[in-house]
Amino acid sequence: MNLTYAPALPSLRRPAVPAPPFNRFLLNVDFEAPAGEQWSAIGGGDSVPEAIAAAREALPDGPGWDVVRWNHLYGD
Questions:
Q1: Across all residues in the chain, what is the average pLDDT?
Q2: Between the CA atoms of 42, 46, 64 and 70, what dihedral angle is there, to the nearest 10 degrees?
Q3: For residue 25, what are the CA distances in angstroms to 30, 31, 57, 59, 67?
Q4: Which of 21, 30, 42, 49 is 20 to 30 A distant from 68 in Cα terms?
């Protein structure tokens, strides 16, 4: 019987990484400014208003953008 000590090998498993937050809604939102400029942006959130607010963050500064229409990319 061999009683020699063998140290444990280091684990090759990667540490657990938390999953990124999941957006219940992902929308493509079209915006229009009073002078006729148009812009489209994608936003996600737990509700439609949150997803639209997230899409607004991608808009250029300046004109007051209004939502013209939005479409689900995925979600309820």
A1: 85
A2: 50
A3: 16, 18, 16, 19, 16
A4: 21
